């Protein structure tokens, strides 16, 4: 740490859509890793990665689950790829009320990619290990950022996790009670 700044490791998965064959091994590996107990089942509906497939255009796009959003967005882009139009929802990583993507099939709870959190840590995320076509490449890079930004990120991640567990209203009520003390 130097002068109020910290070095943060940024983890990335680089997706090369041109190399993706739509084999869906990434979905299988992710769902197996996240099943309870680990590797006890294979269910792509539980995967935190989904491969959008349009065989007519030979288009396969792996998409990792991002943050949960409570409301569907009201402004959307449209994408034209190889002469065919797709809505923004097609490639969106959010778990959202308007579609079934990235929801745990039994509970309906949102799923989010955790880059395969594990103790001890994985050398590479499971989906990257499973991809035999080099469509997914794992990379780590260092980024120097202000310490407050890291703290804010940690705080927001903590609040998001509380909201996920107890609901937004309970968290709001708890904050209101705590600030009165
Ligand atoms: S990085 Fe891990 S959690 Fe994220 S999509 Fe890939 S296998 Fe699933
Ligand atoms: S494992 Fe690789 S090639 Fe197969 S669907 Fe996933 S990203 Fe595409």
Keywords:
single chain, 181 residues, alpha+beta, Alpha-Beta Plaits, two-stranded antiparallel ribbon, two-stranded antiparallel sheet, 5 helices, 28% helix, binds iron/sulfur cluster
Layout of secondary structure:
Blueprint (H helix, E strand, L loop, with lengths): L4 E11 L9 H9 L15 E6 L4 E6 L13 E4 L2 E4 H4 L34 H5 L5 E11 H20 L1 H13 L1
Antiparallel strand pairs: 1-6, 2-3, 4-5
The site of one iron/sulfur cluster (SF4) has 13 residues, from helix 1 and helix 3.
Protein name: 4Fe-4S ferredoxin-type domain-containing protein
InterPro entries: 4Fe4S_Fe-S-bd
Tell me about this structure.
The protein has 181 residues and is α+β, with helices and mostly antiparallel strands. The chain has a single domain, classed as Alpha-Beta Plaits. Helix content is 28%, strand content 23%. It has five helices and six strands; from the N terminus they run E-H-E-E-E-E-H-H-E-H-H. Helix 4 crosses helix 5. It is globular and about 60 Å long. The two termini are 34 Å apart. The model has no long low-confidence stretch (mean pLDDT 90). Residues 29-30, 33, 48-49, 64, 113-116, 125-127 line the site of one iron/sulfur cluster (SF4).
């Amino acid at each position: 740490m130097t002068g109020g700044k910290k070095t943060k490791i940024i983890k990335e998965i680089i997706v090369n859509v041109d190399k993706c064959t739509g084999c869906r091994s990434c979905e299988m590996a992710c769902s197996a890793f996240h099943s309870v107990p680990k590797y006890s089942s294979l269910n792509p509906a539980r995967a935190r990665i989904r491969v959008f497939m349009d065989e007519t255009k030979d288009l396969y796009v792996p998409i990792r689950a991002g943050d949960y959003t409570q409301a569907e967005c009201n402004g959307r882009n449209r994408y034209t790829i190889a002469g065919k139009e797709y809505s923004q929802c097609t490639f969106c990583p959010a778990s959202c009320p308007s579609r079934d993507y990235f929801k745990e099939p039994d509970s309906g709870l949102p799923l989010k990619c955790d880059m395969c959190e594990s103790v001890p840590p994985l050398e590479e995320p499971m989906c990257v290990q499973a991809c035999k076509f080099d469509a997914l490449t794992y990379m780590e890079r260092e980024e120097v950022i202000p310490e407050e930004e890291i703290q804010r990120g940690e705080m927001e991640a903590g609040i998001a996790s509380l909201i996920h567990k107890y609901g937004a209203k309970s968290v709001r009520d708890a904050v209101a009670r705590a600030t009165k003390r």
